[in-house]
Amino acid sequence: MGETVVGRSVRRPDLVEKVTGAAEYCVDVTMPGMAHAKVVRSDRAHARITAIDVDAALAAPGVVAVVTSDDLASLHARFGHIIADHWILATGKVRYYGEPVAIVVAETVAAAADAVELVRVSYEDLPAAMDVDAALAADAPLVHERSYAATGDESFTSMSHLEDEAEDVELELSNVAHEVTIGWGDVDAAFAAAAVVVENTVHFPMLYAYAMEPYNGVASYHDDALTVVSTAQHPYMVRDDLARVFGLPLSRVRVTTPYIGGGYGSKSYTKVEPLASVASWCTGRPVKLTLTVEEAIYTTRVDSAKVWVKSGFAADGTIVAREFDILMDSGAYADNSPLVMAKSVNRCFGPYRVPNLRVHGRSVYTTTAPASSYRGFGAPQGNLAGETNLDRAAEELGISGADIRRRNLVLKGEEILRGKRGIDADIPADLEMVVKSLERDRKDVPYYGIGFGCSASDAGAYPISTAQVRVQIDGSVLVLSGSTEMGQGSRSLLAQVAAEELGVDMSVVTVVQSDTSVTPYERTTGASRTTTLVGLALQRACADARSRLRDMAAELFECEPGEVGDLPGGVAGPDGRELDFGAVVRQWFGGSAGEVTGVGLVRRDGATQKMPPFWEVGMVGVAVEIDPETGVVAVDQLVTVADVGFAINPRAVEGQDLGAATQGLGGALHEELVYDGAQLANANVVDYRVPRLKDLPRKIDLMIAERRDGVGPYGAKGAGEGTLNPIGGAVAAAVARAVGRWPDRLPLTPERVWRLINERTE
């Protein structure tokens, strides 16, 4: 059967719900007898807690309880994806401004908020380390007085899955949370023989992912079982953390996710769920916790980074060696930063032939808000250094930014990481698509510059996915997957795949929301994996359902299963009789009941044996025009290529690329969290500057490269992050060419660009 549903820009099934306000988000969820929680937070960066006085708060109207770390002594009161170093409530000391110290539970949100002001916390101040340089100084205060990575405590998460990324080095009594080194060849000899050597240091800013919906969680602990509704991207991993905290079997913890209002990595892993859960455990009532934007910013932000890079080139512009040193500011708790840093190590040197390589990366504790995942997962930080270094070398060699890339990009099938899957894309062809589009509309005016950016990310995380389809007696279909819907369109995509595979109309396909007690296991919703790995699991589940239906039909037709033919939404017997799926189910069960379930599993074998499961390519070009009087950078052109193998929903791919590019432009030109002493100066919706509609480029060209070279259904590969990864470097190169000086940090605000121009002209 030919493809009839996939490959089309179908309307998303959730569209009407969302635009009419009917869609349910976590903030809409209520439970009988539900109380409300607000959090008492630290007002200093680093201090010992000497006393917490809750008496006045407990006496306030409507207050049910005030929970402190003393109330959690019988629990495993730490959690964390990579290192379980994160206290649910500050215990002994606080490590950053905004850290949760106590939880006030009350009958209303207003009563809880009022009582928060009545809790008195006494502190003894400790020296702070507000950036990586301070944290690595010889006299730096220790953020943590022990090494969590080395413990054998069963409550700690092993880092063993990092061994596939790079060498794991554990450091005792240090502010280095994790350290990674990779490399090959003789780097020093290659540098000594190079015709040109270029080195520079760049600074990637501290950002906030700024999902439209802040963190929410509703928890109910009852009869030694825990039910949580939350904004989690990875409900199964949250379930695992909560089971560990309370000492419960996994089967006694249920995590569900309704629609999520954006994530971009910030809602990866466990965030507010332990706070709501311990509040319910202590009070015996369901508890809802909804954070403000400011609280959300202090809950997690993006790793800022300081990256030094040195590259050597032959006279013809080919790379002979590269070396990187990456320092990532992980904040007070590791969260997912060690893995973000490890991925940055893998991705910083780009999709180029690098015969000699040395990369050293460190994830560093500081007394700032914890960092976690962000769209691109370590690639934007390292790629900024690698790409700007390449463009600096092009200037020194007297060639264009496009030419230096042409001379070094890997070809399809070549390895980027030694011993890993070869590149599954035609990156040189993608580059030419961008060059052609940019040059076609290039302006010939002063202060105008063009920049390119290339990246390749080892995407998909670990290939573990499961899916189920349930064919009902009326022929309608339920799709069950643990993949969460947070605006990216996963429910629409999965409905398209199921409709295509079973030959039914999308209108009869329903995708069930994530629920760890109902939907099958899904490792993560991230790493651009849903299309490739969840889609593949669903394709297999549909094939399994069809096989079962053929077997059942063979009994009804009194023939062999191999004699039963497939029809859209049904089967055909050897005698020409046709039955739709609903009729097969009804007749086989002999009544108006029953269903057929198909199961699809993906693990590390076959097409997904070699890591990574697929490569996500980022290919962008930008043209900027600068006002020399103000330093304002206007993006004139934005050109992107989504190398997705096959676009199951082309409009959705374009939306993902435009969203990623716009988010990348935000970090390149506007966004930066700024600390003023112990606290953030702009942790609010007014002072944190995200892109606006007027910031969009004059020309936007979103192209899709379809070569069916992915391991996913119909040759598809993931999308959604690749375009963000190289855009910072592309903007920096475009600005440098426009003003004649190279910036060393993002964002390129008007003030910074104005200074670049005036430094050049003085």
Task: Put the structure in a nutshell.
By secondary structure, this protein is of the alpha+beta class. It is 27% helix and 26% strand.
Structure description:
The chain is α+β, with helices and mostly antiparallel strands and 762 residues long. The protein folds into 4 domains: 26-126 and 210-299, Aldehyde Oxidoreductase, domain 3, CATH 3.90.1170; 128-209 and 300-400, 2-Layer Sandwich (Aldehyde Oxidoreductase, domain 4), CATH 3.30.365; 409-457 and 614-762, Aldehyde Oxidoreductase, domain 4, CATH 3.30.365.10; 462-608, Aldehyde oxidase/xanthine dehydrogenase, molybdopterin binding domain (Aldehyde Oxidoreductase, domain 4, 2-Layer Sandwich). Helices cover 27% and strands 26% of the residues. The chain is built from 18 helices and 33 strands. The chain has a 7-stranded mixed β-sheet, with helices on both faces. It has a 6-stranded mixed β-sheet with strand order 9-10-19-18-17-11, sandwiched between helices. A 4-stranded mixed β-sheet has the order 21-29-30-33, sandwiched between helices. Helix 9 links the parallel strand 18 (319-331) and strand 19. The radius of gyration is 27 Å and the shape is globular. The model is unreliable at 149-171 (pLDDT under 50).
